[in-house]
Automatic annotation (TrEMBL):
Annotated TM spans: 6-23, 35-55, 61-80
Keywords: Cell membrane, Membrane, Transmembrane, Transmembrane helix
Subcellular location: Cell membrane
Entry protein name: Pesticidal protein Cry26Aa
GO molecular function, one term: monoatomic ion transmembrane transporter activity
Gene Ontology cellular-component terms listed: plasma membrane
């Protein structure tokens, strides 16, 4: 239980740091990385709250959110590089 609460604390700090970096980033690439970190941290928080609540449907939500986040990261990387491979 203490480990889960410590994880929530660390991920909450990560959300705050990523939010600040997303608004103050010097360029688009830094903002994209911060947005990806923010999304991953929020998904982690949802997963930890699902463990605390002992709710199996939350894990399906986390799986779908992770897939959507991965595809969004790929799309954003493609847009930032203007389609170059």
């Amino acid at each position: 239980m203490i480990g889960i609460l410590f994880g929530v604390l660390v991920l909450a700090a990560s959300v705050l740091v990523a939010g600040v970096r997303m608004f103050r980033g010097p360029n688009d690439a830094n903002r994209a990385i911060a947005a990806d970190l923010l999304f991953s941290s929020v998904v982690g928080l949802i997963a930890l709250f699902g463990v605390l609540a002992m709710s199996p449907p939350v894990f399906d939500l986390v799986l779908i959110a992770t897939l959507v986040g991965f595809l969004a990261t790929l799309s954003l990387a493609r847009a930032l590089t203007k389609g170059r491979r």
